[in-house]
Design goal:
single chain, about 90 residues, mainly beta, about 5% helix, about 25% strand
Length: about 90
């Protein structure tokens, strides 16, 4: 079986990984602010990404989940918006 794999760096820890037809966004961060600049330009906006099948958030730092940008780009926690799958997050602290 052959499956294509590609990874697109968006910026900082944010990447779009594509496994065949499955598209997974990791550590979504799209905002540059005076209080936080990731040190590189952000390569894409939420609106330009197209369909996302899942979002993975690796850990609980604020610069690994830009919820405001996701919501502004059409992500809806109730319906998923352009995200057609789960949001995978770390377990709570013990």
């Amino acid at each position: 079986m052959t499956t294509t794999l590609s990874a697109t760096r968006i910026g900082h820890a944010c990447q779009l990984s594509e496994f065949g037809e499955t598209r997974v966004l990791t550590d979504p961060w799209f905002t540059q602010q005076a209080t936080y600049y990731p040190g590189e330009p952000i390569a894409a906006s939420v609106e330009t990404l197209g369909r996302i099948d899942a979002v993975v958030i690796s850990h609980e730092h604020y610069d690994h989940c830009d919820l405001d940008a996701l919501m502004a780009g059409g992500f809806d926690l109730g319906t998923g918006g352009p995200v057609n799958g789960p949001a995978v997050t770390p377990r709570g602290r013990k």
